[in-house]
Design brief:
Radius of gyration: 16 Å
Shape: globular
CATH superfamily: dinb family like domain
Number of helices: 6
Number of strands: 2
CATH architecture: Up-down Bundle
Strand content: under 5%
Number of domains: 1
Order of helices and strands: HHHHHHEE
Distance between the termini: 7 Å
Structural class: mainly alpha
CATH class: Mainly Alpha
Largest sheet: 2 strands, antiparallel
Strand order of the largest sheet: 1-2
Length: about 180
């Protein structure tokens, strides 16, 4: 399979974000913050973690980008011990963090796609792989969010997204 173009990857990223939104936007704050035990992660943590990883990747691989919310970067980092992942912000702040990070991903990948960066061919290759990783990571955590949504709270799951660039591997939607 050929690597999708950056334009196609940006569209797949939007689809992945919309799918995750379908999994949590109708949940209550109690459902989004629920953890069965202190050594677990709530849906809200996964939502922030998806954005934090996307931000870290853009910041460290393409654009030395400042954080839209440094406090959430720290809380949502995978290196934060699970016991310390329970003091989650309100849903509006989580949603804003996700939206702000997505806007910056689109901005920088768009600049790379338009060749408006130094070393445009080198950054294009990095951005292609970065976007595949960001999208696959979004779907990885979306699966876990969906499992909690369905198994713990009895909410129906939306249909999985599909496109010529997506496949399902061991139950996870992935680019490739």
């Amino acid at each position: 399979m050929n690597t999708p173009s950056l334009t196609e990857l940006l569209a797949e990223h939007s689809t992945a974000l919309a799918y995750t939104d379908d999994l949590w936007r109708d949940l209550s704050v109690d459902e989004v913050h629920w953890r069965p035990v202190p050594d677990s992660s709530a849906i809200g943590w996964h939502l922030g973690h998806q954005a934090a990883v996307a931000h870290y990747m853009v910041r460290n691989l393409t654009a030395a980008e400042p954080s839209p919310d440094g406090e959430l970067d720290s809380l949502m980092d995978g290196a934060t011990a699970e016991r310390q992942r329970g003091d989650l912000p309100d849903l509006a702040r989580i949603g804003k963090y996700r939206s702000d990070v997505a806007d910056r991903v689109r901005f920088w990948v768009g600049k790379i796609d338009d060749g408006e960066v130094g070393a445009p061919m080198q950054l294009r290759r990095i951005a292609e792989n970065m976007m595949i990783a960001i999208i696959n990571h979004e779907y990885q955590h979306a699966k876990w969010i969906g499992e909690t949504r369905s198994d713990q709270f009895g909410h129906a799951l939306p249909d999985l997204p599909s496109s010529e660039h997506l496949s399902v591997v061991e139950g996870y939607v992935m680019v490739g």
